[in-house]
Sequence to fold (457 residues):
Amino acid sequence: MSARFQARLWVAQRVTAMILAFCVVVHLATIILAVRGGLTAAEILARTQGSMAWGAFYSTFVVAVAIHGGIGLRTIGIEWLGMGRAAGWVAALVSASLVVLGLRAVVAVVA
Amino acid sequence: MEVKVWRGDAIGRFESFEVPRQPSQTVLDVVTHIQRHLDPTLSYRFACRVGMCGSCAMTVNGTPRWTCRTHVDKVAAAGRLEIAPLANLPVVKDLVADMREFFDKWARAKGQLTPTRTRADEFAVVDPESPARREADAGIECIGCGVCYAACDVVKWNRDYLGPAALNRAWTLLNDARDGAQSARLHAVAGDAGCHSCHTMMSCTEHCPKHLSPTRSIAGLKRATWSLAPEGEKS
Amino acid sequence: MSVARNHPAWWAFMVHRVTGIALALFLPAHFWLLASALQGEAALEGKLRWTEQPLVVAGEWLLVIALAAHLAGGLRVLALEFLPWRDWQKTLAALAAGLALAAGLAFALAR
Fold:
């Protein structure tokens, strides 16, 4: 784990942050609009089912959040949990899990 | 007034002293009074006494400060004064911290100039108004007192973290037109031990007695290390 | 002990980190719930009904604030790291807090 690789992780963290800034604004707006008058599965699925646009949006969101969250958790593992090098591996595992679970959820609401 | 002073090293305790209040009294005055009149075995550092050298930096009521520039009135409003050595550094004895790791990290961050000219060459001409020189000048007044290092939580959580002072110095040199080791310096300040671990908590900037902003310098380093070339190639 | 830490930028960081942890812990549950749509609309609807319990509603509200706060704190970091330096970062921290609260309010009112 060279300084160069660690610098690249930092870059990935900031790049995904910028992507997520956009995704989160859209997501917050969607939540606030959708939650008016109560939230039903029918409403959600009516919006997302069969939609390539929402599929692409949420897939991007999932991958970006998995990378961003993983790198963040790695730092916390090192700084607060004293995990040393293991933090990287645990974080990678968490990232991978989030991608799998997340894309599964995207498929669930879009397919 | 009751003053609690750290005695011992990593293992020790706070010892209480009764110290008379004086007008315009500084915390350094208090420590000096204790050592001269109450307990000559108290160890502490000072030099200039007038806020120029940074030697008297200690933890006063939980905050790292220059004790010669800290008026007792300002910090002991509740009549309580607690003095300890600078945080994040090993304790030699009582109020004396071991500054070696602070300066070792300075060196590891390539915090020294690598000259490109000899005495046989003409003087380097550096325009003081150039953007690079202005950036360097914004951080150049650091006297290595260690207050920022003591204030930084990342230093506390990450033993390898070079710290605000070392990184600030590296930034000033990165902007120094005379220096010839920029590629090595960029590698030295990158990664978990370097600028990428700074979380912009800004305790350094908040506490620097010279009103420098290591956070600003470190932000510059982050941008400078955005694309690190492989070791040995020109950045 | 913590006198050295009572300044805006420190709180901005701590909020950013704590909300990050909260969101990271929440995400698997979020993905798991949405994935129930794989069993059909009724399955998702059933889980959504479950989330209407007062405690869960309160938790969701906190999560929306956490998301908004994490976004705002992240924007502060991006501004500090990429934009030309200005000395009014304290204002940035305050702005971030304001944004987060606004989002929380909007969410609470929308329901």
Notes: Chain A touches chain B at residues 1-11, 75, 78-80 (CB under 8 Å). The mean pLDDT of chain A is 93.
